Write a sequence for this structure.
């Protein structure tokens, strides 16, 4: 069982997109994955119930920090992987989700202030880990990269000292479309998602792949709304 929390102090760098992509990818491999939406706005759980088309996963929505702490522990008993999507961490539920995590993924888009915000999130995870007296590794993952632009190159260079994944996501319409279509992107976006999952496995942020594709069921998403 692994709990992967996706967090950032800055709004909009792609937390929910990344959560959708990871949950979708794992569910389509037949991994027993549970999505936990800790953002009060509930974008991930709305997407999971109304739009998602693919193999089964359960999705819970809980933004109250006290109830979330109990819920994470409970769903972790039932799943091989729990992916937690959070709001910015002025929100206490996000801090609970970081504290409960085995690993934290921090999406970062190229832009002014984004490197600083990503560094703050790395620092917060380190602080939470130290308070909990255990290791909670974190990695920055670049999102919406336009490899040809100076801004993207600058952001990648600036993020240099931060713990960063090799894998990243380009700025592609396909990711935005996933939010509307509920389907796993194919083509370049699909390949980037596969590379992201592979690297997360290599560094131990996700458990190793198992060949259980025969257990994959057809579309059915169970969502329990427990939060406000
Ligand atoms: N790689 C990408 N390419 C193109 N569009 C993207 C990409 N990643 C995210 N987006 C778009 O950017 C917007 C913000 O992404 P998303 O909602 O995932 O961010 P977030 O970090 O969850 O935001 P919030 O902090 O508000 O929860 C969405 O419209 C999404 O479709
Ligand atoms: Mg979001």
């Amino acid at each position: 069982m692994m709990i992967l929390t996706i967090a950032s102090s800055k709004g909009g760098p792609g937390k929910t997109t990344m959560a959708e992509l990871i949950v979708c990818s794992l569910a389509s491999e037949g991994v027993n994955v549970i999505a936990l939406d800790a953002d009060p706005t509930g974008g991930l759980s709305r997407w999971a119930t109304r739009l998602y088309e693919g193999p089964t996963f359960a999705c819970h929505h809980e933004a109250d920090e006290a109830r979330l702490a109990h819920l994470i522990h409970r769903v972790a008993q039932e799943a091989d992987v729990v992916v937690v999507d959070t709001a910015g961490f002025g929100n206490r539920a996000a801090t609970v989700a970081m504290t409960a995590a085995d690993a934290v993924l921090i999406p970062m888009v190229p832009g002014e202030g984004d490197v600083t915000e990503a560094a703050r999130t790395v620092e917060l995870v380190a602080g939470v880990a130290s308070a909990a007296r255990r290791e909670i590794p974190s990695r920055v993952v670049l999102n919406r990269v336009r490899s040809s632009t100076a801004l993207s190159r600058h952001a990648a260079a600036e993020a240099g000292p931060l713990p960063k994944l090799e894998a990243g996501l380009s700025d592609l319409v396909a990711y935005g479309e996933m939010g509307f279509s509920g389907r796993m992107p194919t083509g370049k976006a699909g390949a980037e998602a596969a590379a992201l999952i592979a690297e997360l496995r290599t560094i131990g942020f996700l458990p190793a792949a198992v060949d259980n594709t025969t257990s994959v069921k057809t579309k059915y998403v169970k969502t329990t709304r427990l939060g406000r």
Summary: The pocket of adenosine-5'-triphosphate (ligand 1) is lined by residues 11-17, 39, 87-88, 143-144, 169, 171-172, 175-176, 179 (CB under 6 Å). Residues 2-206 form a domain with the Rossmann fold fold (CATH 3.40.50.300). Helices lie at 15-29, 43-51, 65-78, 92-100, 114-132, 150-158, 173-181, 187-202.
